[in-house]
Amino acid sequence: MNPAVTLSLAVGGHITLIRAAFFVLAQMLGSSLACILLRALTGGLVTPVHALAAGVGPIQGVVAEVVFTFTLLFTIYAAILDPKSSAPGFGPLLTGLLVGANTIAGGALTGASMNPARSFGPALASGNWANHWVYWVGPLAGGPLAVAVYEFIFTVPATHQQLPTVE
User: Fold this and answer.
1) Where do the structural domains in the chain lie, given as residue ranges?
2) What is the pLDDT tens value at each position of the chain, 167 positions in all?
3) Which class for 14: exposed (0-12), middle (13-18), buried (19 or more C-beta within 10 A)?
4) pTM of the model
5) Where are the alpha helices (DSSP H) in the chain?
6) What GO annotations for molecular function exist for this entry (predicted)?
7) Closest CA to 83 of 156, 159, 148, 8
């Protein structure tokens, strides 16, 4: 349910770009409908939007979101997607712990979104688009960057040869 994760999986070759586009569309639609429904069910209360803290500029916000999303995707790759993971079965727990740590560390700065869909729904429902681009640029840059670092530095390339095909 996160466009940054979806894009990163596409960059890493785990899903196709067409499938990723459909996933992102569904994620945006789901977030939007949920926030609109929540607003209707609560008598007009608006879901809070992510916002930059006082003294935090947009560029600082982007850098923070890049770092948060980088660590999220690096953890997903190392603990869940890598078949040689040293923590098999613990990937979801480690990912959840990291999201919690990122939220504690960065919640006061940017809200530590790490998820463009999570930021989009409330912005749409409330009409508050202030610095909304930060929550797209940061995660969509940080996720694929983590994939590139993990794939090119930490993944050992396969050294096996293809089996011959039978005709």
Assistant:
1) 3-152
2) 899 999 999 999 999 999 999 999 999 999 999 999 999 999 988 889 999 999 999 999 999 999 999 999 999 999 999 888 888 889 999 999 999 999 999 999 999 999 999 999 999 999 999 999 999 999 999 999 999 999 999 886 666 566 677 76
3) middle
4) 0.89
5) 3-11, 17-41, 58-76, 91-106, 116-126, 134-149
6) water channel activity
7) 156
CB atoms within 10 A of CB 15: 16
Structure tokens at 97: 């712990």
C-alpha to C-alpha distance for 59 and 105, rounded to whole angstroms? 18
| Region of residue 90 (left: phi > 0; alpha: psi -120 to 50; beta: else) | alpha
Domain 3-152, what architecture?
Up-down Bundle (1.20)
The token pair that represents 2 in the structure block: 């996160």
Contacts of 145 (CB under 8 A, 6+ apart): 66, 70
In one-letter notation, the amino acid at residue 132 is H
